[in-house]
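Renewal narrative, Specific Aim 1. Our central claim is that a sequence can be written position by position from structural information alone. The example that follows is taken directly from our test logs and has not been curated for this report. It begins with the structure tokens describing the chain, in the order in which they were read.
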């Protein structure tokens, strides 16, 4: 992933340097396990432990001749190990015993960072929802005015959505944090299963229960789908910010520095570019999720068709999702909210947002439904057309609307607030 959408702690996990350092760690742990079994001399383990991690440049140099990254890594790694000890490196293992076990470790670390970022976003949303629980605004369905709600209620919905994503990511972490050191077709023919148990235990990984040389790729597909689902939740937040930021609405505004410039030609512009960026990244994650599903079905015990895809998508998906969740938390945390604009939006229509309450009162008073609906609709249509005030037009039909206000629509709002408070307590 390009540096523009990468945060350093995630980028480090997917660097060539860390990948080769993780490979070296797997090889060292495997040699220790073999030594415990009496198959590798302790002196060789010491030599392997002292070996330097080869540079990415050196591995690439050898790979230009050998066209095999793992063998090139092993050749470069063993350059720093005496020959009598180097022969014990990778004993009984096949390439993907190394690659997939190291990948499981890197994915577990990446998941932890992503869960932390998503949990922070959940907390920011819940906190700001509580802050604006009484900030009345118009609810919209189909993009049109519906009934009053509160801005806190909107944010609470987003907080619960992100919470579900956190739980999906936590479940996906369990599935991808696995390794296998089982040999060429996963039968442990040339390596004792103890080596796998020892290495994966030291790395905090589970074990693929029925290995086929590789870890099953449905695990990775599940993770990227969970990341894409989080991305879609972020997109929903960003879309709401974009819609409420429009010039004719301006109920919220993205945080701005004093040096902000929105357009090279129009100095008045205050574009919701941060939100637009988050929407674009969600599209990227959805594409990655679909492609990862293509990697699940491999030929027989394995082929290599998944490798080129994963080299791009796994680092990119985790990096993008981590950046997106972090940026979304910053956006929500600094979001400017204009309660007076929200209330003015409701008041501007002269009570049209309360039409459902007028209809409900008529029905309770015994008016036939069709007649009641048509009467209220006629008054609403007249008000929209500029023929008069909504309440006055109702009065002209002999309907006393009584006092019109948003309070009636929020009488049971505390039910949702209690649920939000439980979420906040659990998050803290």
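The sequence written for that structure reads:
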């Amino acid at each position: 992933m390009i540096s523009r959408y990468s945060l350093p702690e995630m980028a480090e996990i997917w660097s060539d340097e860390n990948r080769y350092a993780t490979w070296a760690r797997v090889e060292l742990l495997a040699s220790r396990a073999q030594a415990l079994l009496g198959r590798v001399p302790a002196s060789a383990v010491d030599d392997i432990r002292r070996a330097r991690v080869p540079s990415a440049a050196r591995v690439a140099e050898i790979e230009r001749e050998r066209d095999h990254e793992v063998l090139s890594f092993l050749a470069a790694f063993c350059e720093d190990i005496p020959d009598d000890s180097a022969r014990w490196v990778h004993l009984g293992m096949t390439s993907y015993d190394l690659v997939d076990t190291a990948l499981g470790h890197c994915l577990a670390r990446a998941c932890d960072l992503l869960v932390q970022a998503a949990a922070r976003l959940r907390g920011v949303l819940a906190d700001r929802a509580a802050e604006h629980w009484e900030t009345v605004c118009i609810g919209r369905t189909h993009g049109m005015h519906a009934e009053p709600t509160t801005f806190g209620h909107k944010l609470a919905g987003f907080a619960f959505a992100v919470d579900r994503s956190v739980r999906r990511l936590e479940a996906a972490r369990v599935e991808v944090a696995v390794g296998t050191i089982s040999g060429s077709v996963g039968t442990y023919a040339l390596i004792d299963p103890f080596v796998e148990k020892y290495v994966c235990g030291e790395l905090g990984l589970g074990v693929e229960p029925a290995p086929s040389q590789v870890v099953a790729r449905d695990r990775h597909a599940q993770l990227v789908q969970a990341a894409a689902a989080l991305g879609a939740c972020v997109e929903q937040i960003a879309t709401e910010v974009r819609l409420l930021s429009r010039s004719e609405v301006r109920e919220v505004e993205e945080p701005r520095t004093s040096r902000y410039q929105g357009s090279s030609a129009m100095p008045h512009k205050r574009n919701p570019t941060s939100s637009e960026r988050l929407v674009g990244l969600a599209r990227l994650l959805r594409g990655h999720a679909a492609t990862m599903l293509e990697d699940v079905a491999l030929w027989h015990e394995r082929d290599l068709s998944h490798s080129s895809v994963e080299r791009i998508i796994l680092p990119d998906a985790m990096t993008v999702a981590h950046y997106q969740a972090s940026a979304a938390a910053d956006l929500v945390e600094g979001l400017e909210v204009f309660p007076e604009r929200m209330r003015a939006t409701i008041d501007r229509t002269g009570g049209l947002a309360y039409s459902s309450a007028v209809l409900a009162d008529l029905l309770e008073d015994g008016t036939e439904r069709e007649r009641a609906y048509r009467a209220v609709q006629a008054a609403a249509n007249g008000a929209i057309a500029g023929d008069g005030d909504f309440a006055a037009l109702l009065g002209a039909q002999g309907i006393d609307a009584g006092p019109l206000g948003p309070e009636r629509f929020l009488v049971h709002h505390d039910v949702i607030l209690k649920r939000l408070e439980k979420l906040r307590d659990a998050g803290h």
